[in-house]
Amino acid sequence: MPRARRKRTVYSLQKRNTILAAAQKEGLTALQVKQRFGVTPVTYYSWRRKYRGASNGPPPSVRARGRGLNLEQQVRSEVQAKVRHILPEIVRAEVSSYLDTLFRSRGRARNV
Question: Domain boundaries in the chain?
Fold first, then answer.
């Protein structure tokens, strides 16, 4: 029995930008994007990664539409993006420091 072919929907750049802007503005999850727009989570994450790649955000056309957000939301969004970017390194450094301290103190206790 032959396999059924997958239906492939092609989204224009404008449609992608609209979906990404709506998802960002409303804080939608990938599942909510799928329910509302019919875009699979894999596709949504792929678009998001591509548009955030170099500039840490969606393309300029999407950012321009987001200017309707109030200042507090814009600042919050920027701070969250920066924290997501630097947090892994901070956690790594803190865990390493903790482990160094933990194992140094145990080593001293055994030698005494």
Answer: 1-68, 70-112
